[in-house]
Amino acid sequence: xxxxxxxxxxxxxxxxxxxxxxxxxxxxxxxxxxxxxxxxxxxxxxxxxxxxxxxxxxxxxxxxxxxxxxxxxxxxxxxxxxxxxxxxxxxxxxxxxxxxxxxxxxxxxxxxxxxxxxxxxxxxxxxxxxxxxxxxxxxxxxxxxxxxxxxxxxxxxxxxxxxxxxxxxxxxxxxxxxxxxxxxxxxxxxxxxxxxxxxxxxxxxxxxxxxxxxxxxxxxxxxxxxxxxxxxxxxxxxxxxxxxxxxxxxxxxxxxxxxxxxxxxxxxxxxxxxxxxxxxxxxxxxxxxxxxxxxxxxxxxxxxxxxxxxxxxxxxxxxxxxxxxxxxxxxxxxxxxxxxxxxxxxxxxxxxxxxxxxxxxxxxxxxxxxxxxxxxxxxxxxxxxxxxxxxxxxxxxxxxxxxxxxxxxxxxxxxxxxxxxxxxxxxxxxxxxxxxxxxxxxxxxxxxxxxxxxxxxxxxxxxxxxxxxxxxxxxxxxxxxxxxxxxxxxxxxxxxxxxxxxxxxxxxxxxxxxxxxxxxxxxxxxxxxxxxxxxxxxxxxxxxxxxxxxxxxxxxxxxxxxxxxxxxxxxxxxxxxxxxxxxxxxxxxxxxxxxxxxxxxxxxxxxxxxxxxxxxxxxxxxxx
Amino acid sequence: xxxxxxxxxxxxxxxxxxxxxxxxxxxxxxxxxxxxxxxxxxxxxxxxxxxxxxxxxxxxxxxxxxxxxxxxxxxxxxxxxxxxxxxxxxxxxxxxxxxxxxxxxxxxxxxxxxxxxxxxxxxxxxxxxxxxxxxxxxxxxxxxxxxxxxxxxxxxxxxxxxxxxxxxxxxxxxxxxxxxxxxxxxxxxxxxxxxxxxxxxxxxxxxxxxxxxxxxxxxxxxxxxxxxxxxxxxxxxxxxxxxxxxxxxxxxxxxxxxxxxxxxxxxxxxxxxxxxxxxxxxxxxxxxxxxxxxxxxxxxxxxxxxxxxxxxxxxxxxxxxxxxxxxxxxxxxxxxxxxxxxxxxxxxxxxxxxxxxxxxxxxxxxxxxxxxxxxxxxxxxxxxxxxxxxxxxxxxxxxxxxxxxxxxxxxxxxxxxxxxxxxxxxxxxxxxxxxxxxxxxxxxxxx
Lengths: 624, 447
Prior knowledge:
The complex is a heterodimer.
Chain A: H1 2-21, H2 28-73, H3 79-83, E1 88-94, H4 99-116, E2 121-124, H5 132-150, H6 169-184, H7 188-194, E3 203-207, H8 215-227, E4 234-240, H9 245-250, H10 253-256, E5 259-265, H11 269-281, E6 289-290, H12 292-306, H13 309-326, H14 336-344, H15 348-356, H16 358-365, H17 369-377, H18 379-412, H19 423-432, H20 439-462, H21 468-493, H22 503-506, E7 507-508, H23 511-518, H24 522-531, H25 534-537, H26 555-564, E8 569-571, H27 572-582, H28 590-603, E9 606-608, E10 615-618
Parallel strand pairs in A: 1-4, 1-5, 2-3, 3-4, 6-7
Antiparallel strand pairs in A: 8-10, 9-10
Helix pairs in contact in A: 2-4, 2-11, 2-13, 5-6, 12-13, 12-19, 12-23, 14-18, 17-18, 18-21, 20-21, 26-27, 26-28
Chain B: H1 11-20, H2 25-35, E1 45-49, H3 56-66, E2 71-75, H4 82-94, H5 111-124, E3 132-137, H6 149-154, H7 156-160, E4 164-170, E5 187-190, H8 196-205, H9 213-227, H10 234-254, H11 262-278, H12 287-296, H13 316-330, H14 336-340, H15 361-364, E6 369-370, H16 371-381, H17 390-401, E7 405-408, E8 418-421, H18 425-434
Parallel strand pairs in B: 1-4, 1-5, 2-3, 3-4
Antiparallel strand pairs in B: 6-8, 7-8
Helix pairs in contact in B: 4-5, 8-9, 9-10, 9-11, 10-11, 13-16, 13-17
């Protein structure tokens, strides 16, 4: 309850921000609502498609659990089973280096396990478990609470307060025996709730970030649990970001021999990205589209920096918010059915906004003069035209995506992938400029012409009746025809979006804002602030031209500027002298200089040097 | 064979005990003579040490259970704080007689409390007239606890004025335990490793009921022939024996050989065991996977072990960061000019090679380097311009959490952090290949 209240409060704050932040707050509430609903849908779509991708992995894991569980349950007196040492079933789950995405994966994994296998799932994180004691505390806390969560109706279960439970394996086993015994005695009517779980369900312990755990904690825990594996059906899941070799690195043979390790690998994060792009961006389902530059920023951050699909989605969210916030006309960026209503209720100001759009102005210029006047003066006529133009834009999108996919099928089968291996590369190429004017497209057509030969030859050889010589010429013609046809389709339907009128309404294209927010450069910002304080302080007195710095600048800026010209070691006395020269001697006291120097030290530019007294060492080189 | 003899126990029990502890008769008889009769005071503390699976825990457990001596058995790894340990001893002691009735939990924070509660419990359990044994398994953990715990356990008899003996079991020698303030010296007893003959004898004791002892003994012989070189752990050998026995029996089951056809059986099992040594013994593949493979007659080659998945996919700049870190770790600082400056002139290796640098840097291991050197190398090996964005810095931190880099010394970000690259040459070469970077050309060792 509290949680949902909080959301309401924060939502209304956001709405206020939307309203106040913009001077011409046209339809801000409606824009805000549209933005919210769009994001909700995008988020849902993304979550569903990511879940689908993980399905196979989770199925494998569940069947592994089932297998190891049946081994646990068979209490045979067979010789073989008696002789074998009982190992702890362990799944090594290799998830890739995009650690930020793992949280979601583990959350859905524990959901799947709780729905299909066992209510007893514990998630452990290295930062919570610096010692074995903390680990046991976390484990007991999570497991013993989960019982209450599953059957919340049964309040008669004595929940001893958490800190009174001895945090040892023995209390865990006692607890496990008590809860499993209890479900055994359940009345048939209640059985229904736990029937999706197995008999004496396993206790799954998930180590989310295996690499960060200390070896001692892991070893101790494994040694302890292996002593009790007969009483407590424990299953371990190791979340691994790098490679399963890390297990051998962390655990000595005496400990790893207590485990029965099987390997599970998730799909690579690049495949996740392709799916998200496919489901969220290359579709007419969502009205908002990204321009080539914006998409490139998002993809570059993904490929160059973090491999994180979650961050990609967050970036897309930022695009949505930014678009609806800055573009007053984004109110028209909604589903086809709504558009008409919204156009009719557009205010005069909004009509003026439309007239100011560059793409619309281009459009007006190409119209006959009487129509131009009507468009610029009559709001009603403008609205009609806008309606029609938006319909056109919609039709364009409906054709664009199928044709794009089609072209991708052709290009991806060619050697060297002239237009990119992934559909996202092709999409970017098409958005950037007329794809048929690029060299890559030329080479694509030529390459495409060649495999057509084999393709048709195969079909033609099956038609035996016609004469050989005639066949070939006919065949040549056919080849040209096919290539021409594809070429014309591409020219017709893959026009870059920014050639389309009113594309500003549905395309978000301020890549610079996105880059500033998502790929910040703290060192550069710091350098700019110190080197050119006007940039942030906006005081006319600080305005300086060229490389010089104003006398009125804060002390730290002047000191910083001077230190840039020094070598690795800076003599404090010299520095002070130069500082005094730089400004009129009266205005710079010793104390102010020392304060500026210690501020620089705090910012990490210099540190006291042990090599020479009264010297400081620079910690940076160059400008940034 | 020295038969166990002791006046206090009936001969039949002793005989039974002897059959349960093969190859440990002398140690058991030694322990028996120290224990003496039930009511006699025994030595206050006994320290038993020996390698992994030399039967310390098993012998103590069997001895105490068979002779029905009152005791508690506590694993110090499992009870990792002194409080847990002491409480566990008391709980076990209180639950000895009254199995059903759960004794009220009494907190025991200090050793003083423990002595008091222990005395009460001994009286309430009626154990005043017998020696009570406290066995502390994995006793090396005691050293991690408060300084008073180990010395107090060693003279528990004196502190409680009760007939109690503390037995410490450990894999390391007593000299590593002795506190520098001095303590009561326990009686130390060494359990030597099992010889190959002992192993053979013990492993053959539990032969499967459907086959003869001789047949199984021949199998164990072959098994030890393969594994004795790498593994002397009894538990592990037993596990391996159980895992592979069905394969050994295969020719007999199919009727291709009889039980005495040792040569044929050897030919069948030997390559199989060698494969097992490289895979399942190292836990490259799990035991259950191994059994399934055997069952389905599949080739072990189809199933890749853990080490086969060494490849790690990294973001583009992370790859270059790692390469730069590797170069910074293995190249001397002075050579950076030679590798990364465009017009460095002709510098031959001999010119700037000091005497100690003749040894390969790869043999000496990675050296720490400051952050700025890493970034400088990064900027010069990446073709396009790299902005020093927050993402680059956070990538360095992620590489540290992934344990591909490690932070050296104090982790004060302001004071110029220093890193080391912890990946192997093979690993970095694989990474460099994916970005078309010829790393060998940039390594001083391969100049």
